[in-house]
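Oxidoreductase
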Amino acid sequence: MRLVVVSAGLSVPSSTRLLGDRLAAVAAKEAAAPSPAPAAVQVVELRDLAVEIAHNFTNGFPGPALADAFGAVVRADGLIVVTPVFSASYSGLFKSFFDALSVHDEDALAGKPVLIAATGGTARHSLVLDHALRPLFAHLKAVVVPTGVYAASEDWGAAGLDRRIERAAGELAALLRGVSAPGSAAAGQASTLVPFEERLSALGQSPRPGKSPRAVS
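Predicted structure tokens:
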């Protein structure tokens, strides 16, 4: 199982990266349960890809490091995405990476479990999870876990942050455990379609004149 953290932190050390690492540690352990070995975790640091992201927009081609990052995200079973808050929203670097990814492969995140998280200097920005991050990843067709995690400066070391991390990471792990591997019997099983007129016959009814029968699942 592969878990990828996309961190848009700019400083070293970065509270954004720290939050991503803490979420990944819990999710990787729970996703692999009952095995004692945690799931594999890879971190994509957008700070290191800033130049290649900019070049990608001007020449239309990802550089080697950016192409590797795209590949890691596409192959991942689940994502943890973390951004600092700038001007009450995600950072430009964060948005640019996912814009470039969607141009490269518009279905890269389709159906992929994603945990959203953000860091900021004040709790007033906590709504960024729901007014910015959640709509973005819904647009990219990802499956966003119910609980997002926002960490303000005063949250570090507080029990409340630990509880949110455990809850959100647990939700991501539950989604990862429920994902059927490509080619598995569950993934390859076709839905059984029952013609609409047969459903009506079972109810002692018949299709109305002028209405074409439909197949329903």
